[in-house]
């Protein structure tokens, strides 16, 4: 019934006589070591097609269907190796850690990033990490994008993990980001409130939607304005994937350096002298999105007290601000 055609894809021909079954349930039974959560994430990412078309998890599989599933739902190394990678630990006790993740580091192993991740570093640092996730994501309560720097909380036991995850679910976590975006905002303070959905034209991107997706709320405040950019403080009410990046790009003010959402192109100041060379030099300093998760606050699951942690801006961010000011 199923055949591994490369290391990256599975081809599954549904045989005659097969009773109707949800696609995600069907694939769990067809692919060794796959879990329903992995299957559903791959389906949401558009990595599973039925008869050549992207499918939904609740699609009813029928005899004659041809299913192609890409590797993220196929087996991957579950025994993540500890690696001696330096960690910037802002806080640590017996129950949790707060880590300042550098830009360029992925939170946990995934397709094309099995080593050099935060999890690899954590496993070298401690043997105490929660196990509520699958084996490839011990301790990981939440994530920030690979090229975003800043604070993450890591759980050392399942109780702590569950209590922190509950706070994220209720949107009671305090999360403050700093960013440099193109242009100037219409107001010094404001709220951005839209639905965010996966882009239909590019499954790796997200977009503002009037009718689909999930509600996303971001509060912003202008810290300083420059010639063609602004330095912002942003607070998340919700925590959707790429939320700040999508909200600012939706306003025509993408984050400076954000290749995915157009922040590596000139949006304002095209009439300024030597703007192309100036922007080119700035992009060499900041070849990623200028976004940093600066502050993180939550109720400690064991002490029941609110704790707040802050981090310095990374060096590339500081240098970018220095150049913009000058």
Describe the protein's architecture and organization:
By secondary structure, this protein is α+β, with helices and mostly antiparallel strands. The chain folds into three domains: 2-73, Structural Genomics Hypothetical 15.5 Kd Protein In mrcA-pckA Intergenic Region, Chain A; 89-170, Pseudouridine synthase (2-Layer Sandwich), CATH 3.30.2350; 175-288, Pseudouridine synthase, CATH 3.30.2350. It is 21% helix and 29% strand. The protein has seven helices and 17 strands. The strands form three sheets. Strands 8, 9, 10, 11, 12, 13, 14, 15, 16 and 17 form a ten-stranded mixed beta sheet that branches. Helix 1 (23-30) packs across helix 2. The longest helix has 12 residues, at 158-169. The radius of gyration is 22 Å and the shape is globular. Keywords: Isomerase, RNA-binding. The active site is at residue 145. One of its GO terms (molecular function) is RNA binding. It catalyses: a uridine in RNA = a pseudouridine in RNA.
Please give the CATH architecture of the largest domain.
Answer: 2-Layer Sandwich
Poorly predicted runs of 5 or more residues: 1-7, 72-77
Main sheet: strands, sense, barrel: 10 strands, mixed
Class per helix and strand makeup: alpha+beta
H/E element sequence: EEEHHEEEEEEHEHEEEEEHHEEH
What's the oligomerization state?
single chain
CATH topology tier name of the largest domain:
Pseudouridine synthase
Average the pLDDT over all residues and give the rounded result.
89
Rg measurement, Å: 22 Å
Number of domains: 3
CATH superfamily of the largest domain: Pseudouridine synthase
Tally of alpha and pi helices: 7
Relative helix content: 10-25%
CATH class bucket of the largest domain: Alpha Beta
Work out the strand percent. 25-35%
Tally of strands: 17
Terminal CA distance? 65 Å
Function: Responsible for synthesis of pseudouridine from uracil.
Active site: 145
Protein name: Pseudouridine synthase
Domain RNA-binding S4: 21-86
């Amino acid at each position: 019934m199923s055949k591994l055609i490369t290391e990256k894809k599975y081809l599954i021909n549904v045989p005659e006589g097969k009773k109707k079954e949800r696609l995600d349930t069907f694939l769990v039974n067809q692919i060794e070591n796959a879990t329903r959560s992995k299957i559903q994430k791959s389906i949401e990412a558009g990595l599973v097609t039925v008869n050549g078309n992207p499918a939904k998890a609740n699609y009813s599989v029928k005899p004659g269907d041809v299913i192609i599933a890409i590797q993220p739902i196929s087996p991957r190394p579950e025994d993540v190796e500890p690696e001696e990678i330096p960690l910037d630990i802002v806080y640590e006790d017996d129950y949790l850690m707060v880590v300042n993740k550098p830009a360029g580091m992925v939170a946990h192993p995934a397709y094309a990033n099995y080593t050099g991740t935060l999890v690899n570093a954590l496993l070298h640092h401690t043997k105490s990490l929660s196990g509520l996730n699958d084996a490839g994501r011990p301790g990981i309560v939440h994530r920030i994008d690979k090229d975003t720097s800043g604070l993450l909380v890591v759980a050392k036991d399942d109780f702590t993990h569950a209590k922190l995850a509950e706070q994220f679910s209720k949107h009671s976590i305090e999360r403050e980001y700093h960013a440099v975006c193109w242009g100037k905002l219409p107001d010094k303070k404001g709220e951005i409130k839209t639905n965010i959905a996966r882009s239909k034209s590019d499954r790796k991107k997200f977009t503002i939607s009037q009718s689909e997706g999930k509600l996303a709320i971001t509060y912003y405040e202008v810290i300083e304005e420059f010639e063609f950019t602004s330095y912002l403080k942003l607070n998340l009410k919700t925590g959707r994937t790429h939320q700040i990046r999508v909200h600012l790009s939706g306003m025509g003010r993408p984050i400076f350096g954000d290749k995915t959402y157009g922040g590596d192109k000139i949006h304002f100041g095209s009439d300024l002298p030597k703007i192309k060379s100036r922007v080119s030099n700035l992009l060499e300093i900041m070849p990623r999105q200028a976004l940093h998760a600066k502050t993180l606050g939550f109720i400690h699951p064991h002490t029941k007290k609110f704790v707040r942690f802050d981090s310095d801006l990374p060096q590339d961010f500081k240098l970018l601000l220095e150049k913009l000011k000058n």
